[in-house]
Amino acid sequence: MPEKMKAAVLHAVGDLRYEDVPVPELNPGETLIKVKAAGVCGSDVPRVKKKGTYSFPLIPGHEFAGEISEINSDISTDFKAGDKVAVFPLIPCRKCPYCQIGEYAQCDNYDYLGSRTDGGFAEYITAPIANLVKVPDNVSFEWAAMTEPASVALHALRRSGVDAGDNVVILGAGPIGIILAQWARICGAGRVFVTDIVDEKLSVAKDYGFKNCINSRRNDPVETVIKETGGIGADLCIEAAGTPVTFEQSLRIVRKLGKVVLMGNVSGNVTIPEKTASAILRGQLTIYGTWNSSFTAVPKNEWKTALQFMSSKALDLENLITHRFNLKQAVEVFDMMYKKQEFFNKVMFVF
Ligand SMILES: [Zn+2]
Ligand SMILES: [Zn+2]
Predict the structure, then answer these.
(1) Which residues surround ligand 2, an ion (CB under 5 A)?
(2) Which of 93, 105, 125, 245 has CB atoms 3.0–4.6 Å from 292's, for a disulfide?
(3) What's the gap in Å between 74 CA and the centre of ligand 2?
(4) pLDDT in tens, 244-258
(5) Which CATH number fits domain 4-146+317-350: 3.90.1150.10, 3.40.50.300, 3.90.180.10, 3.40.630.30?
(6) Which ligand is closest in space to the CA of residue 291?
């Protein structure tokens, strides 16, 4: 085992450095993973450029997959060196009331790879054995590195209890929006509408077979969806753009008794006009928040489900990966993404 490794280390807000750091040491119950692919999450860009991580210095990156290189465990596990794994980045305390009911995303005292403790923008990372999930042979490391967004999207959709034939609107056609649209189709949705303000993103959605794409700069998405659904409105809307505008649209685009899932990380304050507020009440809308994903065996480990659907190709991630970089380009990559110098969907560091 080498003593040093390369990593992209955040030393302060905006101060990312590609440098040599020690290979992390293994505590009992942990594995050392050789990272093979690590995706840049939409949340990583503000994390590196504006908000910072929980402490410094810290290695960001919470969407990654790799190969087990060492295991430190006295008790036998299902995992062995050489196994291909994806890693649930949330490390729950396993003691608080929420952990006791398996709601790890609600844990009062959790750790998080890539924001609170070192993440995957490095050659090696340590992670608890309990956070690993095996990756099927026919799923690439790059796809496996997207198990996190795929599971987060599945979780959002499962929150709503989507039903066969439901007309679903996805607001926001970023990587998660397109994964959401695919899950909606897998779950038997009727029509799936996708909205965005960037044509390139909508054209990716079209390539995935979603014909009902609306550029909200040109056409009012609420009017369009209401018209297209015979004046009724959608059965379900998932807000995946995280803007005050789409937040408010999500509440007007669904029919009476409809459902809204709020998923996008909202930046800015949201103002709800009186008419919209009234429509929530009078239309008896159901509004769900969604956060993270489920990693319990029962009723469903969403990570395993996501990987199964990748394995069968029912969930297709290939066209979402627009950029592949070497980790040594990390500083330029974050500049490019922050300044939106070119169109990108999922940006991936490959090792
Ligand atoms: Zn993410
Ligand atoms: Zn907890």
Answers:
(1) 92-93, 96, 99, 107
(2) 105
(3) 24
(4) 999 999 999 999 999
(5) 3.90.180.10
(6) 1
